[in-house]
Amino acid sequence: MNGHLTPPIHAGWAWQFSWLNLSAADLIVVGLMVVVFVLAIVIPFPDHKGGDDE
Known about the structure:
Strand content: 5-15%
Shape: rod-shaped
Radius of gyration: 22 Å
């Protein structure tokens, strides 16, 4: 044992840094969250076309 923690299952390719491990699934989830965030900012709220203007 060399003092490093190793995962029990290797789930595919990942970028490994000293403080961060990013797998393909992590990158996909982060990318989808960014897309949803940008869409939430860009898409306007629907206008209320009612009779009362209070």
